[in-house]
């Protein structure tokens, strides 16, 4: 079996698994750790340190120490595998416990993977940040649940609704382009009209219950119009999601939404956590704004946000707004739900949209700037959003062709559906978890438990041995030939030689690598399975072992300069073993 831990608070499971392996399978602690690690994977969902659970050490000790010791396990060994140092003190970190005792780890979007590697690089000291063994599997949605009935019927009419066999076939969904523009637009407007009827029912009920002025209610209902460009914002009202970003410049927003030729209306919905005072304040602020004369019927807040309302929202507005503080949105999924219904995303490049946006399937604002001052960031992002609304979004929505439909807007709707429906489905997500986490872990686990855990014992014994023996390794000499001072022409190569005194380490237990890092601002986060590096500008070249005489071992390799630019390089030695899953497994590395 493979155990999948989601978020650090679930990591106490690891301690219970130690008890199970030692008490019931009669394994020693070290073999148990390898068995547990091989069969456990971990997903982190939180891109900020404050969101990762920690406990006062005394609290953990009070609850767990006697329980662990009564089951025959040393409390000190548990602290060791959890990465807790009693001399240094501090909090007991649940995420560290999970990261140090799982085979595979992942964030929930590409950008979240980058953020997570930066957050937790301290655990793998001596390795590059890009080597930190936290990959990513981007979240997805259950397409059949979130695609509206009206859109399903339309897709089916044009034979493009095979959500079972073809959902992961990106080319299949290009057939969305075969749907006539007029029909997809009419379907969208029908969904929008139904949603607006629902809005009016909710508003009448709410305002009547609260005893609001009848004349204001009449004016509000008169102002609500499904033909106007409608922006939707619905989600948990956490402060980092900045529900009030649009209200940063009231006067500019008024000019935008009150434009008589191109009017705009904004619909909000959502809830705050009961203990989130600031989130509740944001809701109160928006409700109060919605009742001001200038915003009556132009800014609407819908109460009692639930899955029923969410379904109507993600199919019944024109534009889906998302404006978190980058990079605090680990993934997000509401935009995926909107996108498959032809509701166009307009978002900060954060979470899933950082990888999902391609320039044709929606809009992005705020660039990728992360400013130190939150007030300055808010002003920068809001102005970017206002500019986008004024200069691109609103004109595109209201520009109609001879058939009376917004051709460019519909093109973008179709691109939204085509690019999102396959890539951001739970089908794809589960496939990725199977291929990248579950199957590798299951294979590793099964290999260790054969013959009454024989390989688990052997590998654990080797780890214990190599940790002490690798202390005797020394790098003696490095030779680099072929460069012209610090320069190398494209197409030329250098020969790198390394001499190592391996001490008590056998030749087959040591490897050497040349690391080449291109100094560039163009950062890629494409993962290389071969090297374990999350950056295409970093090359890892395994050096060939040439000869071994006693403890003297020589390595060499050749590097060919294929690109121009400024490069840095380094040489390192590490332990190696057939049962290691990654160079970072033992956290042992010596740099020359």
Task: Summarize the structure in words.
It is built from 18 helices and 20 strands. It has three domains: 166 residues, Glycogen Phosphorylase B (Rossmann fold), CATH 3.40.50.2000; 282 residues, Rossmann fold (3-Layer(aba) Sandwich); 119 residues, Immunoglobulin-like (Sandwich), CATH 2.60.40. Helix 1 packs across helix 2, helix 2 runs antiparallel to helix 18 and helix 9 crosses helix 13. A hairpin with a 2-residue loop joins strand 17 and strand 18. It is globular, with a radius of gyration of 29 Å. The chain is of the alpha/beta class and 592 residues long. The strands form five sheets. The chain has a six-stranded parallel sheet, with helices on both faces. A four-stranded parallel sheet has the order 1-2-5-6. The longest helix is centred in the last third of the chain and has 44 residues.
Task: Describe how the helices and strands are arranged.
Layout lengths: L2 E4 L5 H12 L5 H10 L1 E4 L10 E3 H14 L4 H7 L9 E3 H7 L3 E4 L2 H10 L15 E2 L6 H4 L2 H9 L23 H30 L3 H10 L5 E6 L15 H8 L6 E6 L7 H14 L8 E4 L4 H10 L2 E4 L11 H6 L4 E5 L4 H4 L5 E4 L8 H25 L8 H15 L4 H44 L4 E8 L11 E9 L8 E9 L19 E5 L1 E6 L2 E9 L6 E9 L14 E2 L1
Parallel strand pairs: 1-2, 2-5, 5-6, 7-8, 7-10, 8-9, 10-11, 11-12
Antiparallel strand pairs: 3-4, 13-14, 14-18, 15-16, 15-19, 17-18, 19-20
Structural Rg: 29 Å
**Beta-strand percent range:** 15-25%
CATH fold name of the largest domain: Rossmann fold
Name of the level-1 CATH class of the largest domain? Alpha Beta
Count the DSSP helices: 18
How does the overall form come out from the CA principal axes? globular
Number of domains: 3
The main pleated sheet reads as: 6 strands, parallel
Terminal CA distance reads 41 Å
Order of strands, widest sheet:
9-8-7-10-11-12
